[in-house]
Design brief:
- The protein has 149 residues and is α+β, with helices and mostly antiparallel strands.
- It is 17% helix and 38% strand.
- The protein contains 2 helices and 11 strands, in the order αβββαββββββββ.
- Strands 4-11-9-6 form a 4-stranded antiparallel β-sheet, with no helix packed on it. A 4-stranded antiparallel β-sheet has the order 8-7-5-10, with no helix packed on it. It has a 3-stranded antiparallel β-sheet with strand order 1-2-3, covered by helices on one side.
Length: 149
C-alpha cells in the first residue's frame, strides 16, 4: 500500500490551478517512476484528460536527491504492519518532535497491530530530522517512519 504524501497533494493542487480544471473526477498517482493523472472537466476546450507523468516537480527531484544522501542507518522503518500513533493517547503530547535529541532506546512512536501497542524505539542517539509517519495512519512493513540526522 503506497501512501499519498504532502508532495503528491502539492503537485495535484499545482496541476489543478495551472490547468484551470474544475470538478476533478479522477486523480491517479503512481509512485514507481512517478506519475500523476488527472481527469476533469476543463474551463478551456482542451482535452479534459491530462497526463503529466513526464512532468516532475522540481521539489520531487530535490527530495529524491536528499533521500539518496540520507544514510540508511539513520532511517527507522516499520518492523510490522499496523497503525502508527505519535503519542500515547490523543490528549498526550507526541513522543518526538523535529529537532529533538533522542537517546538510544527512547520511544519514537507506537504501532498498533492486532490490538497490541508496540513501542518503536530509537536504535541510536541522534536528532530527529523528519517524522514521516502520520498519526493514526496505517503503515506497512518497511515503511519509513522517522529520519535521524
Amino acid at each position: 500500500m503506497t501512501k499519498i504524501d504532502k508532495t503528491d497533494i502539492e503537485n495535484i493542487k499545482l496541476i489543478l490551478s495551472e490547468t484551470n480544471l474544475i470538478n476533478p473526477s479522477t486523480i491517479k498517482i503512481k509512485k514507481g517512476d512517478y506519475e500523476i493523472e488527472v481527469s476533469a472537466q476543463s474551463i478551456s476546450t482542451v482535452s479534459p484528460k491530462i497526463d503529466v507523468s513526464a512532468n516532475k516537480n522540481i521539489n520531487d527531484l530535490d527530495e529524491k536527491v536528499a533521500a539518496e544522501e540520507i544514510n540508511k542507518e539513520n532511517i527507522v522503518s516499520s518492523p510490522m504492519v499496523g497503525v502508527a500513533y505519535l503519542s500515547a493517547d490523543p490528549n498526550s503530547p507526541p513522543y518526538i518532535k523535529v529537532g529533538q535529541h533522542v537517546k538510544a532506546g527512547d520511544t519514537l512512536l507506537l504501532i498498533e497491530a492486532m490490538k497490541t501497542f508496540n513501542e518503536i524505539k530509537a536504535p541510536k542517539s541522534g536528532v530527529i530530522k523528519k517524522i514521516i509517519a502520520l498519526n493514526s495512519q496505517p503503515v506497512e512493513f518497511g515503511d519509513q517512519l522517522v529520519i535521524f540526522e
